[in-house]
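Task card 7
Instruction: Convert sequence to structure tokens.
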Amino acid sequence: MFSSPSEIKEKMKDLGKVCIPGMRLSLLNNENIAGPGTYELRGYIYASLAGVLKTEKDENNTTVISVDSPKTPSILPKTGDIVTAKVTVVNPRLVQCNVLCVGPSVLVRPYRGILKKEDIKATDRDRVDPYKCYRPGDVILARVLPMTEIHWYHLSTAENELGVAIATAEGSPQGVSMVPVSWSEMQCPKTLVKEPRKVARIIPEYLNQTLFPVGNNHNNNLNNKEN
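Output:
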């Protein structure tokens, strides 16, 4: 059975609302802001999920552009958030990782994150050696920077509160995490092996303690070094 012209028009209207990741949705300005399921990039709002375009007014009468989907996670990383990520690749220019949590909230799925060498520390940014700060398998805390690429979350660990939360030394027994002995070094309590790291000053609300339990020794050891 053929559809009538009005039915076709209505279907096309609905089709126009469907978004795919990376689709440009709107200008980013005083009238339009990015909502759930979207991200900001170079003056525009883009879809980060497959779903249906949704617009609504906030209390300031600004239009919130969002993408609604049956699979839309309730939380997505956004600029300024503190996230928990697991390091996957380290090379002389950058660190790649999977973003797993925003604050203590676990994400529905991991998102790809990238940490450039100049965003690892606040000082000596050009002389930082990423391999002396992070290793594959490390669990780190990082802050989300404004997006400059569509498929990556750009991260920073320049603040003292950010960096390695959990790490295991090479050759250490499985499940045995290192403890910090300074802001730039951690040690395995079993093998006594020391390895360089950019150590985080853990703030409990930044980390899901169920998924990533960090012992009290983490901060206590660092505080004792300062006293």
